[in-house]
Amino acid sequence: CGGGGARSFIDGVEGVDARFCSLKSVPTEAIEVETVMLMREYRLLPDTQAAGRWRGGSVLVMELENTGLSATMTVRGLNRFHFRPWGVKGGEVGQVGKVIFNPGKPDERSIGKIKILKMKRGDVVRMITPAGAGFGDPLERDPELVMKDVRAGLQSRDKAERDYGVVFGTNGIDPRATDEKRAERRASRAPLPEFSYGPEREASDRIWP
């Protein structure tokens, strides 16, 4: 599973299905021993967390290659390919998912949600999961939490400055400059919406209000 949505008191989870978190994820070694699939990539994607006082979890990227003569893949529960998860009380919207078949090859194509996928030897599928939205005003996020994500490599300094109005000094985040910058932003911005729906939903609502 990809990034979970933020809640009113805590960040979204990273790469764990909250309903079955006791199981977490299947180890790569188990997949490669028990199937013909080679796990080429399994990682959190930086700068994909939805901003908020409590931020959403990161996108998870999985890339698998078929090493057998043939393989049939089916995927359960990989949704959110059309409409983004909603941001709440000023939180940023989440991200939609994407599936790329044979990335970097002449027959590369985006195939959307997998139902049943037939694969030949050497075929590769890259799944880029959706990610949940943020909750609350990003300018109210604790700068220490922002810095923690920067140090972990989950968020770049540029995105941290853009999303959270933090100012970096020689020893991390400069508290006084950050407070001043955040105050300037609050004074010049429009009121925060109760819900943020994302461009796809807004375009649909213009057609079907």
Report on this structure.
This protein has five helices and eleven strands; from the N terminus they run H-E-E-E-E-E-E-E-E-H-H-E-E-H-E-H. With 209 residues, it is an alpha+beta fold. Helix content is 22%, strand content 21%. It starts with 27 loop residues before the first helix and ends with a helix. The model has no long low-confidence stretch (mean pLDDT 93). It is globular and about 60 Å long. The protein has a five-stranded antiparallel β-sheet, with helices on one face. Strand 9 and strand 10 form a beta hairpin.
Q: Which percent range describes the beta-strand content?
A: 15-25%
Sheet having the most strands: 5 strands, antiparallel
Number of strands: 11
In spatial order, strands of the major sheet run 1-2-8-5-6
Helix content: 10-25%
Number of helices: 5
Order of helices and strands: HEEEEEEEEHHEEHEH
Distance between the termini: 32 Å
Topology at a glance:
Elements: H1 28-34, E1 37-45, E2 59-66, E3 70-73, E4 87-88, E5 98-101, E6 109-110, E7 117-120, E8 124-128, H2 143-151, H3 157-164, E9 168-169, E10 172-173, H4 175-188, E11 195-196, H5 199-207
Antiparallel strand pairs: 1-2, 2-8, 3-7, 4-11, 5-6, 5-8, 9-10
